[in-house]
C-alpha cells in the first residue's frame, strides 16, 4: 500500500487518523508540526505517496509546509485538513499544489475515502 506522512499537532486526531489509515494497510509516519513534517519529507527525498497535514499548527502551518515541500519536490501529493472555515479559504491560495482539503471533524470512513481518492488522483 501507500507510504503516508500525517502531520497534526493534536495527538488524538493524529493517532485516530493513523489507525484509520493503517486499516487499509498503509505505512504511516507521523509528525506533530509542520517544521517536523518538512524535515521528514526532506529526509525521505519527497518519497511519501501522500502527506496528510492539518493546516493550523503552532510552529509551521500546513500551507507554509506545503509551499516549502513543493519547492524541492513538486510531485509530492499533499492533502490538507482543517476544522476552520478561514483556513479552508487560505488553502485556495495553494490549490494548484494540494490535492484537496478535508473538513474536520471527519469520520473513519471520511478520512479513508479522502486518502484513497487523493492517492488515486
List the SSEs and their pairings.
Elements: E1 3-7, H1 11-22, E2 27-31, H2 34-43, E3 50-54, H3 62-72, E4 78-82, H4 85-91, E5 100-103, H5 108-120
Parallel strand pairs: 1-2, 1-3, 3-4, 4-5
Helix pairs in contact: 1-5, 2-3
Describe the structure.
With 121 residues, the chain is of the alpha/beta class. It is 44% helix and 20% strand. The chain has a 5-stranded parallel sheet with strand order 2-1-3-4-5, sandwiched between helices. Helix 4 links the parallel strand 4 (78-82) and strand 5. Helix 1 (11-22) crosses helix 5 (108-120) and helix 2 (34-43) runs parallel beside helix 3. The longest helix is centred in the C-terminal third of the chain and has 13 residues, at 108-120. It is globular, with a radius of gyration of 13 Å. The two termini are 15 Å apart.
Record keyword descriptors for this entry.
single chain, 121 residues, alpha/beta, 5 helices, 5 strands
Give the helix tally. Answer: 5
Strand ordering within the main sheet? 2-1-3-4-5
* Major sheet details: 5 strands, parallel
User: Span from first to last CA?
Assistant: 15 Å
Q: Say how many strands there are.
A: 5
Could you give the order of the helices and strands? EHEHEHEHEH
- Based on CA atoms alone, the radius of gyration comes out at 13 Å
Q: Return the average pLDDT rounded to an integer.
A: 93
Q: From the helix content, strand content and strand pairing, which structural class follows? A: alpha/beta
The 3D shape can be described as globular
How much beta, percentage-wise?
15-25%
Spans where pLDDT lies below 50 across 5 or more residues: none
Helix content: 40-55%
Oligomeric state as shown: single chain
Amino acid at each position: 500500500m501507500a507510504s503516508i506522512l500525517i502531520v497534526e499537532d493534536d495527538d488524538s486526531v493524529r493517532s485516530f487518523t493513523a489507525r484509520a489509515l493503517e486499516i487499509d494497510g498503509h505505512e504511516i509516519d507521523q509528525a506533530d508540526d509542520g517544521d517536523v513534517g518538512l524535515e521528514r519529507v526532506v529526509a525521505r527525498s519527497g518519497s511519501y505517496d501522500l502527506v496528510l497535514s492539518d493546516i493550523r499548527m503552532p510552529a509551521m502551518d500546513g500551507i507554509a509546509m506545503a509551499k516549502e515541500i513543493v519547492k524541492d519536490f513538486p510531485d509530492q501529493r499533499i492533502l490538507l485538513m482543517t476544522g476552520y472555515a478561514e483556513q479552508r479559504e487560505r488553502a485556495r491560495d495553494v490549490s494548484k499544489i494540494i490535492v484537496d482539503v478535508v473538513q474536520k471533524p471527519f469520520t473513519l470512513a471520511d478520512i479513508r475515502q479522502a486518502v484513497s481518492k487523493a492517492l488515486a488522483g
